[in-house]
Design brief:
The complex is a heterodimer of chains A (about 110) and B (about 110). Chain A is an all-beta fold and about 110 residues long. Chain A is built from no helices and 11 strands. Chain B is mostly beta strands. The chains are: A mainly beta (about 110), B mainly beta (about 110). At the A-B interface, strand 4, strand 5, strand 9 and strand 10 of A face strand 4 and strand 9 of B.
């Protein structure tokens, strides 16, 4: 079955380190998204991509970057991890049409010490 | 970008219909309304979406007012497994979903 996966599921890192969270989908969806979820804030969009080599900033993009070299993957990089980036991160994908369903991955819980 | 507002929490009785309201008074004519739910810390799960007509699927029904300023998600027979945070979202810009803080629904035995 097609699916969307994230790795690692849990990660602990130190302030200042570079961290990359992986997202992989097997649906061949054009659109991919990264969200973070914190208590009291719901889901907030970090970055998104509408296709290979396309990336766009969301509402909370500072300190994060993404690259899209193929359809299946959209890795999220924290260039220099900060304690404020401790959060649960969700990746999502959708085909691209306005009525298409968006599917979410299982999430990555990141702790920055 | 249309914003949505939901009550922060609500309880409903097991076996009864649960009616979850959402206000989206700034929605534009071509923006769809989507509903998702999140159980524990899992990834959000799609429930249903609509534009102006009422919609029904195996999980729920979606009632959208004629002026499209609000909608109601109906879980016809709530079960304990329906306890979750429910998000009402709109699709804005270039196919981006805008999520609010959600409605924590607790189904009570």
């Amino acid at each position: 079955d097609a699916e969307i996966t994230q790795s690692p599921r849990h990660k602990i890192t130190e302030t200042g380190r570079q961290v990359t969270l992986a997202c992989h989908q097997t649906w061949n969806h054009n659109n991919m998204f990264w969200y973070r979820q914190d208590l009291g804030h719901g889901l907030r969009l970090i970055h998104y991509s509408y296709g290979v080599h396309d990336t766009n900033k969301g509402e909370v993009s500072d300190g994060y970057s993404v690259s899209r070299s193929n359809t299946e993957d959209l890795p999220l990089t924290l260039e220099s991890a900060a304690s404020s980036q401790t959060s649960v991160y969700f990746c999502a994908s959708r085909p691209g049409g306005r009525t298409d369903t968006q599917y979410f991955g299982p999430g990555t819980r990141l702790t920055v010490l | 970008d249309a914003k949505t507002t939901q009550p922060p929490s609500m309880d409903c009785a097991e076996g009864r219909a649960a009616n979850l309201p959402c206000n989206h008074s700034t929605i534009s004519g071509n923006e769809y309304v989507y509903w998702y739910r999140q159980i524990h810390s899992q990834g959000p799960q799609y429930i249903i979406h609509g534009l102006k007509n009422n919609e029904t699927n195996e999980m729920a029904s979606l009632i959208i007012t004629e002026d499209r300023k609000s909608s109601t998600l109906i879980l016809p027979h709530a079960t304990l497994r329906d306890t979750a945070v429910y998000y009402c979202s709109t699709l804005y810009g270039n196919n981006r979903l805008a999520f609010g803080k959600g409605n924590q629904v607790v189904v009570i035995p």
